[in-house]
Please model this.
Amino acid sequence: MDVWYASYGSNLMEDRFLAYIYGGTPPGSNRPERGARDKTPPKRNERVDIPYPLYFAKERSKWGIGGVAFIGTGTTNEESTIGRMYLIKEEQFYDVVSQENNGVKVDLDLEVIERKGFIDIHDGWYNRIVFLGRKDGAPIFTFTSSLPIHMVSLRKPSAPYLSVIAKGLKELGFVKEEIEDYLLGKKGIDGFLTKNTLNNFINF
Model:
């Protein structure tokens, strides 16, 4: 079965996401990815708007000191997160979830997730698998933390991480000013970075 994996952080950049399929070290990261068992490239990819708020949290990651992207645990009509979804095989999706969670073994029942809306699989960073709807007959899934925003410590992202997100948004057709405006209002950036300092993070 094919599924859509909807990304909203560094995987907005296609080359970064493909490291989860082919293996290797993506641009800006300090750690190689093992890749998926099946190296078949995604059949398609396209923009998706995710009705959950984007925020940045945690202290350090493979991108260095700084927060990484999550979406909130509840939908909102006031704020939408720009995503990019990739049409991949079900097994590849499991491998992506595993790699985003330090190699934890992943065994999901996607029909249950679709029926319930989400499930929590363990205590890792990206432990909540969320169903976002369907596109052309295939289900759309993403993942985030099960912790609500008010229970996390917000932290601005590192320059390499934010640069990869910005390049991914550029690949989706956004210009630099649009990218800056989009990011400036996000929790973990708002109050931590100004337009001038954000400009230093976005290099293209």
Q: What stands out?
A: The domain at 2-201 is CATH 3.10.490.10 (Hypothetical upf0131 protein ytfp). Strands lie at 2-7, 44-50, 54-57, 60-61, 64-65, 68-71, 81-89, 118-120, 128-135, 138-144. The chain has one domain: 2-201.
